[in-house]
């Protein structure tokens, strides 16, 4: 009931922003549990940490509202081009009964099988590019200029995927529904799509999460991949998807989430994006917020290796909420006896970005977790 009321508020038209800002913050706060969420990790409430993880993961999977629908990937290679030390390939893959998608795959020239990284792109209100935000488009792709603008703005001019391929990783990235080859689904159209899915007993957030699970399954069956060394990495909305995916499946051995982690208490404030509908529906699972806070969901990834990076000047992610989330994560990893597998970093002078310094931290961390030797 509480979550239904929240969704009703989220569905208000945009011209009601002033009403939301002026009258409803207290209402939001009243819906949040005063102490802990019912499925938050508490030693006195659960018999052991594994029991808690099993129960929490089941609640998360159920909230996706998306059944398992295994289909043949029927992968088809569309284009390929050679790059320095690796090849870039464009593939068409059947992820679900409803979704045939194009993905970019970077195959290193080094010995196989290789460790692999699944890259999950951000939202950014930029819909003409998706996978191209993280992997350099093929030479003939007209989206090259847009991709350059994006990496210059958020990634210090670097294509993260290409940097990883040069280090010996097999890398893939695909478009979420709404971006690049699967778009555009812009602004209020996102909210309309989400509303239609709710009427069908499905959810937009659940579709995105299930497709991410299918991408992991696709990676796992590639003979070129060492599936004992499979990682996920995402920025912004992609970071949300990264820790969510690590929580959903143990096929992921290590995860990196840059610039998306907080608590509901700190996000449910006037002006925050999560209250405006539209893009928020890619990250809202019906009913789940009545059981688990955001860091509780991320903590379901424990005890695997996870790296969380945030900036203290990120206007989308209030610092107090980041710090609260980090504290909750630490409790769970400690309960697993795996405190050394969790790394949380809050850069004091950075905002909503994944810059060169942060990238170097990630590359070093991934190499350690996946036992990748340094390259000249």
TrEMBL record:
The keyword Acetylation does not apply. GO terms for molecular function: hydrolase activity. Residues 1-16 form the signal peptide. Keywords: Hydrolase, Signal. It holds the Pfam family Abhydrolase_7. This is Dienelactone hydrolase. It comes from Rheinheimera pacifica.
